[in-house]
């Protein structure tokens, strides 16, 4: 099996940080997340998205992603010292729901 060839590219720090945050939630590496986004972009272009449609989509402000919101909550709970308690509460809630569904 032949090893894949790799090249280095420079990316804006903000893009890499966003990819890192999303990658954690999606259980990918940062490089894997960026590669995934690149493949999605290529698929969209190959599918016939026009330059005008792309510019319009990119100019619209985006809402924070669910992954970003989850990470923000996680960081806030960690900073407040309440992370462990929130984890215990989530586990207890999930266990209760599982027992209820099993009954």
Can you describe this structure?
With 103 residues, the protein is mostly helical. The chain folds into 2 domains: 9-61; 63-103. Helices cover 73% and strands 0% of the residues. Helix 1 (13-26) packs across helix 4. The longest helix has 20 residues, at 83-102. It is elongated, with a radius of gyration of 20 Å. The termini are far apart.
Quick recap of the structure?
The chain has helices at about 15-25, 30-45, 50-60, 65-80, 85-100. By secondary structure, it is mainly α.
* Number of continuous helical runs: 5
Strand content: under 5%
Oligomer: single chain
Distance between the termini: 51 Å
Question: Which terms would index this structure?
Answer:
5 helices; about 100 residues; elongated; mainly alpha
Question: What is the topology?
Answer:
Blueprint: H1 13-26, H2 30-46, H3 51-59, H4 66-80, H5 83-102
